[in-house]
Amino acid sequence: MSPNFKPFRLALIQLGSITANKTDNIKHAREMVLRAAADAKKPDLIVLPEYFNFPCSHPHLPSSAEKISFTGKPYDVAETQSETVKMLSGVAKETKIWLIGGTIPERDVDDKVYNTCTVYNPDGVLVAIHRKVHLFDIDIPGKIKFKESETLTGGSSTTFFDTEFARIGLGICYDVRFPELAMIAARQGAQVLIYPSAFNTTTGPLHWELLQRSRAVDNQVFMAMCSSARDMTANYHAWGHSMVVDPMAKVLVEAGEGEEIVFADVDPEVMYSARAGIPVTEQRRFDVYPDVSKPRV
């Protein structure tokens, strides 16, 4: 059963200055988390973007991958080989805030590399990871070609985690184009979906807002995607526009293109009102079509 849904404040860090110097990127991310936490109205949950510690299109991305070795059991951050995990755990504990640590390239024991999101509680404990399920392999002639599967392996599980204020479903960027992932999380009790992301300037203007509003209204949940800032000198031009959408598909907050922190107050009553007025959660016809949230047999 999902926890009681309570009002909370969410912060999205649209991080800029992501270079091939991983140490500098990690330091800058820490500084921005501290800045978000120091807001006059302190957030309960802070989110970083996809590939915040190393550029997503850099040819040496696989060599920057870190070993995390999280199995879901009690995790000793002091013993981890991941410098990024150590920073994220430390700053979550220092600020006493829940932290979704964007994504970083992760190398597992079988030498496979994943695009991985890590989550920390206010004590700095690593409580969940999500490996990007759907890899970004696209080819739009004359505009953009990208094949994430050339260097990465896709994850094979859905992910949510519980806080004292909500159940949070996780996805990463391209995962948002596959509504089943959001449906599964929502039907398993997630009231909020959060996807660290980095859409580009080709697909961003067309689909960034559309997809978030669609996933929100489909499932009558809050939806947020946190992007990196746009850098036109980089190989990959992120769209920016980090956003939070409510269960009625209303955009609560939207960033611009540059580095920025945006805040949103998540009000459970908006979800309850949406579900009472348009009760699709009670009207689904699983006698006509299958419930994707049920275990496969």
TrEMBL record:
Q: Which InterPro entries match?
A: C-N_Hydrolase, C-N_Hydrolase_sf, Nit1/2_C-N_Hydrolase, UPF0012_CS
- Keywords of this protein's UniProt record, alphabetized? Hydrolase
Gene3D superfamilies linked: Carbon-nitrogen hydrolase
GO BP? asparagine metabolic process; glutamine metabolic process; oxaloacetate metabolic process
- An annotated Gene Ontology molecular function: omega-amidase activity
Where is each CN hydrolase domain found? 8-268
GO CC terms in record: mitochondrion
The record's annotation in PROSITE patterns points to:
CN_HYDROLASE, UPF0012
Pfam families under this entry?
CN_hydrolase
Per the record, the similarity remark reads: Belongs to the carbon-nitrogen hydrolase superfamily. NIT1/NIT2 family.
Could you identify this protein by its name?
Answer: Carbon-nitrogen hydrolase
- Organism taxonomic ancestry: Eukaryota, Fungi, Dikarya, Basidiomycota, Agaricomycotina
